[in-house]
Automatic annotation (TrEMBL):
<keyword id="KW-0378">Hydrolase</keyword>
<comment type="function">
    <text>Broad specificity carboxypetidase that releases amino acids sequentially from the C-terminus, including neutral, aromatic, polar and basic residues.</text>
</comment>
<dbReference type="GO" id="GO:0004181">
    <property type="term" value="F:metallocarboxypeptidase activity"/>
</dbReference>
<dbReference type="InterPro" id="IPR001333">
    <property type="entry name" value="Peptidase_M32_Taq"/>
</dbReference>
<dbReference type="GO" id="GO:0006508">
    <property type="term" value="P:proteolysis"/>
</dbReference>
<dbReference type="Pfam" id="PF02074">
    <property type="entry name" value="Peptidase_M32"/>
</dbReference>
<dbReference type="GO" id="GO:0046872">
    <property type="term" value="F:metal ion binding"/>
</dbReference>
<keyword id="KW-0121">Carboxypeptidase</keyword>
<keyword id="KW-0479">Metal-binding</keyword>
<comment type="similarity">
    <text>Belongs to the peptidase M32 family.</text>
</comment>
<feature type="binding site">
    <location>
        <position position="260"/>
    </location>
    <ligand>
        <name>Zn(2+)</name>
    </ligand>
</feature>
<feature type="binding site">
    <location>
        <position position="256"/>
    </location>
    <ligand>
        <name>Zn(2+)</name>
    </ligand>
</feature>
<feature type="binding site">
    <location>
        <position position="286"/>
    </location>
    <ligand>
        <name>Zn(2+)</name>
    </ligand>
</feature>
<keyword id="KW-0482">Metalloprotease</keyword>
<protein>
    <recommendedName>
        <fullName>Metal-dependent carboxypeptidase</fullName>
        <ecNumber>3.4.17.19</ecNumber>
    </recommendedName>
</protein>
<feature type="active site" description="Proton donor/acceptor">
    <location>
        <position position="257"/>
    </location>
</feature>
<keyword id="KW-0862">Zinc</keyword>
Length: 491
C-alpha cells in the first residue's frame, strides 16, 4: 500500500460515516419522535466527535506530505485538494467546539420550531445567542485574523468572498427592483383556487420527480416542514410538503429538491465515498435545483404539460387555459416567506439575509435586535412589514442550525442557473417542444454531461465556466427574468 492508497482507504470510511450523520439529520426531520430531540443531539455530537477526530488525524498530514501530486492523474489530485482543504480547516477547530456545535445546533432546531409555531422570539433568543457565540468562535479559529464571515463562507462556496458576492448582488438589486415595480403595476393574473387532496399531490409529485430523472430505486420522497435533499450516490432522499389549497408549493418544492438529488445521483460512480462524490458547492448545487424548478419547471412549455396533468388528476381547474395557468404559476405578489417567493423577488429575500447575517457574525447586530432590524430592512425592500416573527426572522431553519454563509449561495445558484440555461439553449434545440410533452431529458442529460457527473472534480467557478464557456455573471439571469416576465405581464 502506498501513502495515497492508505489515505484513500481512510477517507472512504470517513465519507461513509459522514453519510450516516446525514441520515440522522434526515430521520430527525421526517420520522423521529418529537421527544427524542435531546437524545438525538447527544448522538449527533458523539458522531461529530468521531468525524472530527478522523478529519484531524495526524496520519492525514503525514500521508499528504509523502504523496507526490505530480505523479497522480487529475481526479486523484482533485481528491487531495479537497482533503488538504478539509484537514487545514478542521485542525483549526478544537474537537470540543466541533462537538458542542453539533449538539447545540441539533437541539436548537427543535427549540426554534416550537418558537416559530408560537411566534415567540424570546423563547428562542437564548439558544440563538449560544449558537451565534459558538459560530463566532468557530469563525475566529478558521479566519486566523481574517474576515470571520469569509471564513464561514468557505464551507458552502469555496474560493468566494463576501466582497465578491456583495458586488454581484449590488448589480442584481436595481434591475430586480425595477422589474418588480413594473410587474406590480400591471394587471395581475388569476390565482389557482380549489381543494387539492394531499395524497393526490404526493402521487403527482412522484410522477414529476421521475420525469426529471430522479431514480426512486435509490431515493425516496417524504414530507417535512422544510423541504430538503439528503445523501449522495446510491441513497439520495428528498422531502416536500403539502398544502391542500396550494399544490404548487408541493410540486415546485419537489422539483427543486429533485434538482439537488439528481446532481448527487448523477455524479460519476467512480467518485462514490471519495471527496469528489458530492456536489462541489452549495452555489453549484443550487444552480441545479433552480434550473430544474424555474427555467424548466416554470417555463411556459412545461407548465402547459403540468396544466394537462393537474386537470387529469384534480378535474377542471378555475384557470381556463394553459396561458392563464402559466401566468398563475409565475404570479408575482408581495409576501413574506422566502421559500414561497416568485423568481423576481426571491433574490431580494436572500440579499436581506446575507446582509443581516454578516452583521450578526461581525457583532454589529445583536440577537435581541434582530426582529426590529429584519422588519426595518423588509419594509425598505418590500414595502410591507411582517406582523409576526414566523413570517420574519424565525421563518428559516438556517441560523438556528448554524448555517451562516449558506444563504448567499441561493442567489449565486440563481446566477449560475441563468448562465447554464443560456448556454444550454445555444447548444440544444427542441427544448420547448420536449418540455411541453413533459420530457426533460434533453435538458437534464445536458446538465448531467456538463455539470453533474463531475461532482467535486473542479472548483465551483470552474465547473460553471467549463459548462457555459464563459465566466459566470449576473447578466444572463437578469436578461432571462426580464424577457420572461415581460411576456407574461404584457409590457
Amino acid at each position: 500500500m502506498t501513502a495515497f492508497d492508505d489515505l484513500m482507504a481512510f477517507q472512504h470510511d470517513t465519507e461513509a460515516l459522514a453519510q450516516v450523520a446525514g441520515r440522522l439529520g434526515w430521520d430527525q426531520e421526517t420520522v423521529m419522535p418529537r421527544g427524542a430531540a435531546n437524545q438525538r443531539g447527544e448522538e449527533i455530537a458523539a458522531l461529530e466527535t468521531v468525524l472530527h477526530a478522523r478529519r484531524t488525524d495526524p496520519r492525514l498530514g503525514d500521508w499528504l506530505e509523502r504523496i507526490d501530486d505530480a505523479r497522480l492523474p487529475p481526479a486523484d489530485r482533485a481528491k487531495l485538494r479537497h482533503i488538504r482543504t478539509s484537514y487545514a480547516r478542521n485542525t483549526k477547530v478544537p474537537a470540543k467546539l466541533a462537538a458542542e456545535l453539533a449538539r447545540v445546533t441539533s437541539v436548537s432546531q427543535g427549540i426554534w420550531a416550537q418558537a416559530r409555531a408560537s411566534d415567540d422570539y424570546n423563547a428562542f433568543a437564548p439558544t440563538f445567542e449560544t449558537v451565534l457565540r459558538l459560530k463566532r468562535e468557530e469563525a475566529s479559529a478558521l479566519a486566523e485574523g481574517g474576515d470571520l464571515y469569509d471564513a464561514l463562507l468557505q464551507d458552502y462556496e469555496p474560493g468566494t468572498t463576501a466582497a465578491e458576492l456583495d458586488a454581484m448582488f449590488g448589480a442584481l438589486r436595481p434591475r430586480l427592483v425595477a422589474l418588480r415595480d413594473r410587474i406590480l403595476g400591471a394587471d395581475q393574473p388569476l390565482a389557482l383556487q380549489g381543494h387539492f387532496p394531499a395524497e393526490t399531490q404526493m402521487a403527482l409529485s412522484a410522477d414529476l420527480a421521475t420525469s426529471f430523472g430522479y431514480d426512486l430505486s435509490k431515493g425516496r420522497i417524504d414530507r417535512a416542514v422544510h423541504p430538503f435533499s439528503s445523501g449522495s450516490g446510491a441513497d439520495v432522499r428528498i422531502t416536500t410538503r403539502t398544502d391542500e389549497a396550494d399544490p404548487f408549493n408541493c410540486f415546485y418544492s419537489t422539483i427543486h429538491e429533485v434538482g439537488h438529488a439528481c446532481y448527487e445521483q448523477n455524479i460519476d460512480p467512480e467518485f462514490a465515498l471519495t471527496p469528489l462524490g458530492a456536489g462541489v458547492s452549495m452555489g453549484v448545487h443550487e444552480s441545479q435545483s433552480r434550473i430544474y424548478e424555474n427555467q424548466i419547471g416554470r417555463s411556459p412549455a412545461f407548465t402547459r404539460y403540468l396544466f394537462r396533468r393537474m386537470s387529469e388528476k384534480f378535474g377542471a381547474l378555475n384557470l381556463s387555459s394553459p396561458d392563464a395557468f402559466t401566468a398563475s404559476v409565475n404570479r408575482v405578489t408581495q409576501g413574506f416567506i422566502r421559500t414561497e417567493s416568485d423568481e423576481v423577488q426571491y433574490n431580494l429575500h436572500v440579499l436581506l439575509r446575507f446582509d443581516l447575517e454578516r452583521d450578526l457574525i461581525a457583532g454589529r447586530l445583536d440577537v435581541a435586535d434582530l426582529p426590529e432590524a429584519w422588519n426595518t430592512r423588509f419594509a425598505a425592500d418590500f414595502g410591507v412589514t411582517p406582523d409576526r416573527v414566523s413570517k420574519g426572522c424565525l421563518q428559516d431553519v438556517h441560523w438556528p442550525v448554524g448555517l451562516f454563509g449558506y444563504f448567499p449561495t441561493y442567489s449565486l445558484g440563481n446566477v449560475y442557473a441563468g448562465c447554464l440555461m443560456q448556454a444550454m439553449r445555444a447548444e440544444v434545440g427542441g427544448l420547448d417542444a420536449a418540455f411541453e410533452r413533459g420530457d426533460t431529458r434533453l435538458a437534464t442529460d445536458w446538465l448531467r454531461e456538463k455539470v453533474q457527473q463531475f461532482g467535486g472534480l473542479y472548483t465551483p467557478r470552474d465547473t460553471i465556466k467549463r459548462a457555459c464557456g464563459f465566466e459566470p455573471n449576473e447578466g444572463p439571469l437578469l436578461d432571462y427574468l426580464e424577457a420572461k416576465f415581460a411576456a407574461i405581464y404584457g409590457f
